[in-house]
Amino acid sequence: MSKGEVENEVKSKVESKVKRRGESKSGESSEAQSGDRTGEPAALIQVDSETAETDSAFGDDGVGDDSLSTQSLYSHITNFVYENGRRYHSYQQGAYWGPNDEVAQDNLDLYHHLFTQTLGGKLFLAPIGPDPQKVLDLGTGTGIWAMDFADEFPSAAVIATDLSPIQPSMVPPNLQFEVDDMCLPWTFHPPASFDFIHARCIYGCVADYPALYAQVLEHLKPGAWFQHAEISVVAVADDKSLEGTHLDRWGPLALEAGVKFGKSFSIAEDMEGFMRNAGFVNVERHMFPWPIGTWAKDPEMKRIGAYNRLGWEEGLEGGGRKKFTF
Ligand SMILES: C[S@@+](CC[C@H](N)C(=O)[O-])C[C@H]1O[C@@H](n2cnc3c(N)ncnc32)[C@H](O)[C@@H]1O
C-alpha cells in the first residue's frame, strides 16, 4: 500500500466528518467503571517476509450576540498563537504542547480512524448500554469522536470540551462543543450526571491526574463508565531493529520533555494505577500493538501499520517542536 493510497483511504473514510470543518467556528484503552480483567499485549506481530520496508512511497463566527463581553471572550479563544510556522491555542495559552492547525487536525482525524479500526469499527469498549443519556468527551480535538458518538447514540446529550474552538459548527443536534479547561474545577450541574465520560490522547495535557480522575469519578452516575485511551510515546520492537535509531531515542526524550513541562507523557503506562487509586472499580486494561510501517504479515496489521507510519511522519514535527523547546 503506497502512502498515496493510505492517504486517499483515510481521506475518504473521514471525509464526511472532516468536510464539516469547512463550516468551522474559527476558521480553522484503559477503561473503568465506578472484577478485574487484564488484557495482555497481543502476541508478537508476524513479519511479512515479502514486504520490503524500503518502499520509498512511505519514505458561527461563534458570536451569538454583539455584546462586548461575548466578543472579547470570542477573540480571547480565537486569537491563535503562531510559533515556528505552526498555530497554537490561545485560551490557557501554553497549556497544551500540540498545534491546532489544519495539519494537526488531519493527524488527529487519521488517528481517530486508526483507533476505530483497532476496535473493529467501534468507538469505545466500555459496556455503556444502548441509550446513554449524558456523555462527556474531554479534550475532544477536532470533535470527530464526539460527532460519531452523537450520530450513533441520538439518545445522548453529548458535551465535548477542548481548549481550541476548532470543531465544526454543522454537528449532530445532540452534540455541544465547549471551550473549557478540563484541569480546572468542573462546573457541570448536577455533578454525578454522566453515563459515560471519554478521554483519548490527552497525554502531556494533565499535570495532576489524581485531581482529574477525582473529578471524573465525581461526575459519573453510580454504575456509569469512564474510558481513557492513550498511545504510548515509547516505540518498542520485539527484535533489535530499533536499537540505535532516532525512533528509539524519541520515547525517552518525549518522556523527559513531559517531566520538564510538568505534564506526563507516560499516562498510557500509568493510568491504570491512577484509576485504581482514584477509587474506580471494574478497571480493565486492553493493550493493542500498532506496527509502524507495512512489515506485518496480517493484512489488518499491515493496514494499521501503514496508517500509523503516515501518522508518525505527519505528526512528528508538530509533536516535537514545542516538546523539545520546553
Ligand atoms: C492529542 S489531542 C486529542 C484529541 C482527541 N481527543 C482525539 O483523540 O482525537 C489532545 C487535545 O486535548 C486538548 N487539551 C489539552 N489540554 C487540555 C485541557 N486542559 N482542557 C481541555 N482540552 C485540552 C488539546 O487542545 C487537544 O485538542
From TrEMBL:
Positions of region (Disordered): 1-42
CDD domains: AdoMet_MTases
Coiled-coil intervals, chain numbering: none
Annotated family: Belongs to the methyltransferase superfamily. LaeA methyltransferase family.
Gene3D superfamilies: Vaccinia Virus protein VP39
PANTHER family: ABC TRANSMEMBRANE TYPE-1 DOMAIN-CONTAINING PROTEIN-RELATED, METHYLTRANSFERASE
Basic and acidic residues compositional bias, start-end: 1-28
Keyword Transferase on entry: yes
Protein's UniProt name: Related to methyltransferase
Keywords on record: Methyltransferase, Transferase
Biological process terms in GO annotation: methylation
GO molecular function: methyltransferase activity
Pfam families hit by this protein: Methyltransf_23
Keyword check for Transferase: yes
